[in-house]
Amino acid sequence: METIAFRMRLHPGQKTEYRRRHDAIWPELADALRAAGVADYWIFLDDETDCLFAVLKRPAGHRMAELAQADVMRRWWAYMADLMATDGDGRPLEKHLEPMFHLA
Prior knowledge:
Layout: E1 2-9, H1 15-23, H2 27-35, E2 39-46, E3 51-58, H3 71-80, E4 95-96
Antiparallel strand pairs: 1-3, 1-4, 2-3
Catalytic activity: alpha-L-rhamnose = beta-L-rhamnose
Binding site for substrate: 18, 41, 76-77
Subcellular location: Cytoplasm
C-alpha cells in the first residue's frame, strides 16, 4: 500500500459546515472511494491557514484517476464547491505533498 498526502484549501469560516457534510458522507461516495482503492483516508484542518491536509492509502493498481469521471464524485464536488477552492470543473484544488519523513 502506498500512502499519499495532499493539501486543499477551505474558505474561511467554513469549518463547521465542512465537518457536518463529511460526517454525513453519502454511502455511495464512500463505496466509490473504497472501490477505487482508497483506504484509511484522513483529512486534517490547520485552523490558522484554512488548509486541509488529506492522507490516504492506496494499493498498486488503484483506480483513483477514474473517480473524476464518476457521477457521484462530480455531484460531491458540486455539493462542496461553496466551501473550498476549486478549479474550473468544480474539482477541489489539490497540491500533492512530498513525503519528508516516515517512522514505521
